[in-house]
Amino acid sequence: MLHTHFNHPNEITAITKRALDIVFERGIITRNQSVLVRNVNDSIATMQLLVKRLGHCQVHPYYVYVHDLVKGVEDLRTTLQTALDIEKAVRGVTAGFHTPTFVVDAPGGGGKRVAHSFEHYDRETGISVFSAPSVKPGFFLYYDRSTRSRPRSRPSGRIRTSKIA
What we know:
By secondary structure, the protein is of the alpha/beta class. It has a domain at 2-116: Alpha-Beta Barrel (TIM Barrel). It has three helices and nine strands.
């Protein structure tokens, strides 16, 4: 199993195609993981073309990540809504098994969560809440890209829940 990391269709060149053909001929399954990057691949047309080109190279478009909450790269992040809109538009452009799963890596140890599986998403504030009961109890916050400061009370993005006696 080989995982590639193509984020834009322009990264798939004739050289890339030849190399991926060799990998395929040798029976190696190849999957791709992308990250949505603002003003790079956060348009419907770009992501549709990436998915199609990956398919032509025998590469399974596996995951598309909504950008992690990483300090210093706020300007590269998109909103969760952008991911939801692109995912909806990508579905049906190619065969179902070549449709990537759009995911949020829930901060605080929540693991990969399917982007549309949030418990709550306030599009006005940009705060979404995810749960991962099979991974870790509690709720996990994800914040959309913003220039506003975020609450400091829970830097891990995890909300602790307490039992009521």
